[in-house]
């Protein structure tokens, strides 16, 4: 088969090929941009799903704790300010870690102070232990009872 191509037809084909190449470059650039956006969206989705999973686990644990209620021997730590309850913590370590937010130095050394009244201290941590007989928490270290001037 013989085909005759004119100069004008050849020029038109070259022009069409150039236009198609331009469109292909623009489509490739747009595709690359969309790919980058999709990659970022997938990273954000993965992070959000991970966060959601952790929150779901935490919610389940808290619901289980709430459902079971306090257990005999379980302790809480109460941060006292001049003898008055200020904040309740799940552990002594949590209380000590939070005290810098209340003006105590982060490296403060906590010492037992069972002999002096709680009101004698600006800040004091007291442990309370769950007692099922009283259906409540009691001080872990009860102060020694004081005698009242010879009364019987």
Plain-language structure description:
This protein is α+β, with helices and mostly antiparallel strands. The protein has two helices and four strands; from the N terminus they run H-E-E-H-E-E. It has helices at residues 7-68, 92-98, and strands spanning 75-81, 84-89, 123-131, 136-139. The chain has a four-stranded antiparallel β-sheet with strand order 2-1-3-4, covered by helices on one side. The radius of gyration is 37 Å and the shape is rod-shaped.
List keywords for this structure.
45% helix, 152 residues, four-stranded antiparallel beta sheet, 17% strand, alpha+beta
Largest sheet: spatial strand order: 2-1-3-4
Order of helices and strands: HEEHEE
SSE-based structural type: alpha+beta
Low-confidence spans: pLDDT under 50, at least 5 residues?
none
Binned, the helix content reads: 40-55%
The geometry reads as rod-shaped
**What summary fits the major beta sheet?**
4 strands, antiparallel
Specify the number of helices.
2
Q: Any idea what the radius of gyration is?
A: 37 Å
In total, how many beta strands?
4
Mean pLDDT across every amino acid position: 84
Strand content: 15-25%
The N- to C-terminal Cα distance equals 132 Å
